[in-house]
Design a protein that fits this description.
Layout (H helix, E strand, L loop, with lengths): L11 H10 L5 H8 L3 H14 L3 H14 L11 H4 L2 H11 L5 E5 L4 E8 L2 E8 H9 L3 E5 L3 E6 L1 H22 E3 L5 E3 L22 H6 L12 H17 L1 H8 L18 H16 L3 H10 L4 H8 L6 H17 L10
């Protein structure tokens, strides 16, 4: 049988199909290698041949054939990392996990589009067709409407895959971003990438709902807003200063955890407006102190969800929003205590 460096996400069923149709390996030989009955292999091959009516599955199988079996293909022997990016798959699955989201693609369309209902308007996100093809081949999305445009929804297996990919991403993120201070208190490294990494991985305005936006819609038992407008503006100001100063890149490069070492950075290390923003952000976080600064830095600056912050900090469930509210109130008091020229406008 052909020995190929196929990606590990390729199922045994797909492998047998490709070996039979592209490498001309007999069904009996595939059955012996897989320790199963030849009729089982035959059913699998027929099933995949029938599934090629789906344009995404057909594209995925054709792509694997061209990449790993076609001797004339420029990507002969390509490795898994070149063919399939799990982070891109996780982003696509995250979009499709939203209520009413569908993926639309035409047979000749070079890209796929994820459509999400947002009330009066529909949000559209362009997705690489190759990623959509991999998702379909793994049965993470399934076609529910065909025609000139095929539409797909997230499957049960797709939701399970999303949870697995997110857990893996979270584990890698925590390993990169967390450290422990000498006192045993968990420190925080900023989530922004070091120089040279993709800018798309940075927290960006408008790309996701922030924890502050979520909490601003809640009400307490008396019917009052859970967060006052002043608290929300205080959190947004901290985030803006954090972004402007690019504290994350400096902390990541110097391997410094938040705590006393955070304020050891010298303002002269920054230029122009970033220098003043660094002074404001570091002063605000220092004024909050341990605990409150932890949740403010995670949720306001790094846009980390409350559940993830609670888990990482070892707090009990639903305690994060209470502590964040206290932190925002203290942050607002810090800003109004500043000289008039430095106070928050609005």
């Amino acid at each position: 049988m052909t020995s190929l460096n196929l990606p590990d996400w390729v199922s045994s069923e797909v492998f047998r199909y490709l070996e039979h149709t592209m490498a001309q390996v007999s069904i009996r030989e595939l059955a012996r290698a897989g320790e199963c009955h030849p009729s089982t292999v035959m059913r699998q091959i027929r099933r995949l041949e029938h599934m090629r009516e789906d344009p995404l599955i057909d594209g995925a199988l054709q792509g694997l054939s061209d990449t790993f079996y076609n001797a004339a293909a420029p990507r002969k022997g390509a490795c898994q990392k070149e063919y399939y990016c799990q982070e891109d798959a996780a982003r696509c699955l995250t979009l499709l996990a939203q209520k009413g989201a569908v993926l639309a693609v035409g047979r000749d369309m070079p890209k796929a589009i994820v459509l999400r209902d947002a009330g009066a308007e529909v949000h559209k996100t362009v997705v690489d067709r190759g990623i959509a093809e991999v998702l379909a081949l793994q049965d993470w999305i399934s076609c529910f409407a065909s025609g000139r445009v095929h539409r797909y929804r997230l499957t049960k297996d797709g939701r399970s895959a999303l949870a697995m990919l997110m857990a893996r991403t979270e584990s890698h993120r925590r390993m990169r971003q967390e450290t422990t201070t000498q006192s045993g208190v968990s420190g925080i490294m900023a989530t922004f990438p070091a120089r040279g990494q993709a800018a798309a991985r940075r927290a960006r305005y408008g790309l996701q709902e922030t924890p502050l936006q979520t909490l601003s819609r809640l009400s307490d038992r008396g019917g009052k807003p859970f967060l006052s407008p002043e608290m929300v503006r205080a959190g947004e100001r901290l985030r803006e200063d954090f972004e402007l100063a690019q504290i994350g890149q400096h902390i990541a490069r110097e391997h410094a955890a938040f705590g006393e070492t955070f304020c050891d950075h010298k303002p002269q290390d920054f230029d122009g407006p970033a220098r003043e923003a660094f002074k404001r952000a570091s002063s605000a976080l220092y004024a909050l102190g341990p605990g409150l600064s932890d949740i403010a830095l995670r949720c306001c600056c790094n846009l980390e969800g409350l559940e993830a912050a609670e888990r990482d900090l070892g707090w009990c469930a639903r305690s994060g929003k209470i502590v964040l509210r206290i932190a925002l109130e203290q942050l607002h008091q810090h800003y109004i205590s500043l000289p008039p020229q430095n106070q928050m406008i609005g």
